[in-house]
Design a protein that fits this description.
This protein is of the alpha/beta class. The chain contains seven helices and twelve strands. It has a domain of about 120 residues: 3-Layer(aba) Sandwich (Cytidine Deaminase, domain 2), CATH 3.40.140.10. About 25% of the residues lie in helices and about 30% in strands. Helix 1 packs across helix 5 and helix 6 packs parallel to helix 7. The N and C termini lie far apart (about 45 Å).
Length: about 280
Amino acid sequence: MIGGDRARRPGPTVRTQVHEHLADGTDRRHEDRLATEEPLEIRLAWPGTPARRVWVTMRTPGHDFELAAGWLVHEGLTRPADVHAVAYCTDTDLTPEQEFNVVTVTLGAPPLTEPGHRHVGQSTGSSACGVCGKDSVAAALDVPTAAGRWAGPLPSTDVVRALPASLRASQTVFARTGGVHAAGLATADGRLLTIREDVGRHNAVDKVTGARVLAGHSPAEACLVVSGRAGFELVQKAVAAGIGALVAVGAPTSLSVRLADESGLALYGFTAPDRCVRYS
């Protein structure tokens, strides 16, 4: 759906020249790599309704279709089965910089809720923002689940403690830049099914769910492991995807523990080979 003469697709990293100052007083110039951060505009279309902007987020390019599909499921706007097609927008008025930064998701049925307020045409989010625009705590805690709850076994504490190291071993973009988060979907025995990285921790989770949706699989699984803290927005997405347990390297927050407890999500924080803390 994209012509051969269109702009070059941005990659997950970019080269830059740096001037490094060492403690012994010496300096050196060398090439370094940065994690790419660019905006992604998500547009939504369904039968009888032309594409309209519903969200703009800052992300690391790569797996953009997955990010868009996962975000829609996490927001409760669609069921996984209703994602009919995803494509880069080909409007003739797009600038070269926009050509691979605008994605249109076409649904096979109307959205479950009318995109509005948080999903209005001018909505914008940073790479750190997952729940902007909620009217109240009650609205934030009201998380729709379009994928169905996980009803299978959950990981043992031995598996939980090993998951962050398994995830870290597959963080290729982080190894090159030190500047991205990661999320991975795992079975109850600790086998990682899908791993995604992004400058935004919530984007990484969107990409994981989107990968499952676009592959025709349910996003509900035993465990989601994330490289950072267990902020509310990550718990919200895990609940929306039907995840059984969320394992985080860092700490949770009061609201994330509350949502996990009310939703039946097993929530772990401060996870390391010798320790993990269960909060719900």
